[in-house]
Amino acid sequence: LHMGKTMKEDLTVVVKYIKQLYPPEFNVFSTYAELYHNYFASQAKKNAESHLEDKDIYLLLSWVHNIYPKDMRKDHVLAEELEKVKLGSLLPSSLSKELEKKYLDSEEATIKSSLSKCLDKEIQRWKEDKEPEKLNGHFQSELLAIFVIQSMYSGQKRAKDISAAVGEELSRRLWQELPAFLKSYKDAFEDFKEKSKKHRYYKPILIANINNCWNFR
């Protein structure tokens, strides 16, 4: 963040005040831009090759795909001059792809784990001597559907904020996870239907879960 801010502020000074003090053939702005970019890229590469936590991988990918090319290089003061310099990406493509895979693997595993825990809690609620909540006068096991949908939507949005391609890949992975989750949910529900017919709130729980199907659809 400090490097990005420094580069943006300094290049703005070069455009506004320094460039015109030199003859055009000196390419003063290009020289400054390339030196800043090369240093920034070397630091990004160094960080990418070290051990990074998930949040650091996300931040670094955000810089590579989003913040650096869009917020910095498309800045209204710098865009025209930077267009002439043709700077590359902050990271080599191979390293960027490697980080993307780590991020996608981690995000997929995190969402899968949270869905599984949510289903376990839902199954536990069925066993309690408690009537399901009502929403607009109808029994709803609402937490499960809302949590699952929000978890998937939030994951997709985070990935899409890095880049459209990363967002599409996570969406593809999650659409493979969803049927597996729904099958686990269905199997657990069928098991409850068979074994819990004497449950005090058997019928309301059935209705609540049937109403869940509309949310999932």
Automatic annotation (TrEMBL):
Source superkingdom: Eukaryota
InterPro entries the record matches: EXOC3/Sec6
One BP term from GO: exocytosis
GO cellular component: exocyst
Pfam family, one: Sec6
MF terms (GO), sorted A to Z: SNARE binding
Record-given protein name: TNAP2 protein
Lineage per the UniProt record: Eukaryota, Metazoa, Chordata, Craniata, Vertebrata
